[in-house]
Amino acid sequence: MQSNWPQTLWIVRHGQSAGNVARDAAEAGGLAMIDLAWRDIDVPLSELGKAQSIALGDWFAKLSPDEQPQVILCSPYLRAQETARLVAEHSRLPASTVKLRVDERLREKEFGILDRLTKFGIQQKHPDLNEQRMHVGKFYFRPPGGESWCDVILRLRSLVEMVAREYAGRHVLVVAHQVTVNCMRYLMEHMDERQILDIDRQGDVPNCAVTSYRAVRRNDADEVLQLDLVNFLAPLREAATPVTSEPDQPTAAKP
């Protein structure tokens, strides 16, 4: 019987980036702006982020060949592409059979006018927007020039449809960002606003953490993706690689 979904779907946040490090420094110093010369799309991995990506690749290498990724989909942002390439290289996946596809629908949530601002900077420079966001909530709040979580989910819907159509029965690895990981979970697990924001309040998605789903068939007809792993960090811990969970970009305090 033909499959309706990938056999396995892994969703991974990229390794720690230089932007994560700069954000921590700005927050610790009480600064309004994060000191970054790059566009968000061009922010590279930190050295720790590279080590995290390598550790994840080594974990995939230990899987049997018939369980390893056959397709890698990643955000066009540099930190995600670097993570995907390091994972593929250290998984020792054969380049002739593993497809690496960059897809702009997996890019991070766009922050618009709030880009590179710390929590303090948002409150200082845009108090009205900060108040509006706290009232509306991050799921629907769209900063000028940016996106809401709902906007991200809308673009990810077509990606999920493409994955089901083009990669049914295969093993698919997705490398993306904090918000896109949570928004993918929202779609795959049929959540509502309250459920996904409750998960978000529990803490940030750790860098290179693995959330995965496996296809199961119900009643010999209806195939679904069943949640298997959530923010799985054993690959990093087995390699004694530090775990980090900094947000990709600052936002106002979580409601």
Q: Please identify the top-level CATH class.
A: Alpha Beta
SSE series? EHHEHEHHHEHHEEH
> Mean pLDDT across all residues, rounded?
91
Roughly how many Å apart are the termini? 46 Å
Largest sheet: 6 strands, mixed
Beta-strand percentage?
A: 15-25%
**In percent, how helical is the residue content?**
25-40%
Extended strand count: 6
Quaternary assembly: single chain
| Strand numbers in spatial order across the main sheet | 3-2-4-1-5-6
Overall structural domain count: 1
* Poorly predicted runs: 249-255
Which CATH architecture is right? 3-Layer(aba) Sandwich
Instruction: Count the DSSP helices.
Output: 9
Task: Calculate Rg over CA atoms.
Answer: 18 Å
SSE inventory with pairings:
Elements: E1 8-13, H1 18-28, H2 47-61, E2 71-74, H3 78-90, E3 99-102, H4 119-125, H5 127-136, H6 149-166, E4 171-176, H7 178-188, H8 193-201, E5 210-218, E6 222-232, H9 234-238
Parallel strand pairs: 1-4, 2-3, 2-4
Antiparallel strand pairs: 1-5, 5-6
Helix pairs in contact: 2-3, 4-5, 6-7, 7-8
What does this molecule look like?
The chain has 255 residues and is an alpha/beta fold. The protein has a single domain (8-238), classed as 3-Layer(aba) Sandwich (Rossmann fold), CATH 3.40.50. 39% of the residues lie in helices and 16% in strands. It contains 9 helices and 6 strands, in the order βααβαβαααβααββα. The protein has helices at residues 18-28, 47-61, 78-90, 119-125, 127-136, 149-166, 178-188, 193-201, 234-238; strands at residues 8-13, 71-74, 99-102, 171-176, 210-218, 222-232. It has a 6-stranded mixed beta sheet with strand order 3-2-4-1-5-6, sandwiched between helices. It is globular, with a radius of gyration of 18 Å. The termini are far apart.
